Amino acid sequence: FDLASDSPLFKCLDTMVHEPNKPGQINQRTRPLASPAETMRVIMAQNSNWNSVLMTARDASRLGADVLSGYFGKIGKVQEKPDSSIVSEADQKSEDVIRKHLLEAYPQYGFHGEETGYSTSQSKTEGTWFVDPLDGTTNFVHGFHYFFTSLALEV
E-assigned strands of the chain? Predict the structure, then answer.
């Protein structure tokens, strides 16, 4: 990627970091703020392979969401983790589906899930997927609709 300070990608990323919740306004560097969609368009234009990666990530998230939908309102087994947070069967099943989809599409990348930790040797990978399949487990377990899947790729 071209990350020179005058490149479109740098401008998009820079403005998102400084004021991510105010698209269209001006930040302290007097550049227009980019929306996340605009940032992704710039990234995709600079490297078409990332479009495939992004679509795979989106599909994995949707598959995980399908699993979560099946558990919402009828949660079964819930356990406490060593850090005092909770984990449900929905977390674990969703992570399994997401991991399988991502690693089938990109076996060269490692995987680190919140529930399972690292699933692959980090010394042999080109990057690592980081996934929290159910960010907001407490809300989910109590029937509140404020939860989501967090998914990132570090390269």
Answer: 78-80, 86-88, 109-113, 117-118, 127-135, 148-154
